[in-house]
Amino acid sequence: MKILIVYSSLTGNTRKVAEAVYAVLGSEADLFPVETAPPVDAYDFVAVGFWVDKGTADHKTQEYLKTIRGKEVALFATLGAYPDSEHAAASLKNAAALLGDGNHLAGTFICQGKIDPRLIEQFKKTPGNHPHVVTSERLERYKEAAKHPDDNDLQTAQAVFVRLKEEVSRRLTGLQESEVAGSCGKPD
């Protein structure tokens, strides 16, 4: 099975996750930043990583996701919010909705990651009624996010992708077997 891992990373968070996933998927995998990613045609399984921007994948990844057709796809992401938050779940759902026709979403992974310091400075300038106004609670979340992705996050990503690779392999093998069985049946 040929595997393509594509990622977009602003602060290095998503790149770390992509490299961790690549490390466990073996010689069948290729790793590319989204800017230099090849077409997906020669691959069976495509893992796409992004940083969350405005509740979905960053712009470069949005454009790449729209080009994928007829593949087994897994998404992984990093964000400043907590990974078990509604925002995290909605961000993965919004990114998955960008996938082209005929794809199968094999699974997802998301973890916290440090926030671009320039963005934090912008948030500090927002008015009190803005949804991203900096509060003491938010400052604590920013401090926590700065610790991620940590070793536990990377090990969890690796475990998720080892399991997804096995599931995709079984699914693809099952599809190939059913295609062969279908072609060997008696003519009507």
Count the helices. How many? 6
String of helices and strands: EHEEEHEHEHHH
CATH homology superfamily name: Flavodoxin domain
For the record, give the distance between the C-alpha atoms at the N and C termini, rounded to a whole number: 34 Å
Shape: elongated
Main β-sheet description: 6 strands, mixed
- Report the uncertain regions: 180-188
Tell me the β content.
15-25%
CATH topology name? Rossmann fold
Protein name: Flavodoxin
Pfam families: Flavodoxin_3 (PF12641)
Domain Flavodoxin-like: 4-161
GO molecular function: electron transfer activity; FMN binding; menaquinone-dependent protoporphyrinogen oxidase activity; oxidoreductase activity, acting on NAD(P)H
Describe this structure in words.
With 188 residues, the protein is α/β, with parallel strands linked by helices. The protein has a single domain (3-113, 148-183), classed as Rossmann fold. Helices cover 44% and strands 20% of the residues. The chain has helices spanning 13-25, 59-65, 86-96, 117-124, 136-145, 151-183; strands spanning 3-7, 29-33, 45-53, 56-57, 72-79, 104-112. Strands 1, 2, 3, 4, 5 and 6 form a six-stranded mixed sheet that branches. β1, α1 and β2 (29-33) form a beta-alpha-beta unit. α1 (13-25) crosses α6 (151-183). The longest helix is centred in the last third of the chain and has 33 residues, at 151-183. The radius of gyration is 19 Å and the shape is elongated. The chain starts with a strand and ends in a 5-residue tail after the last helix. This is Flavodoxin. One of its GO terms (molecular function) is menaquinone-dependent protoporphyrinogen oxidase activity.
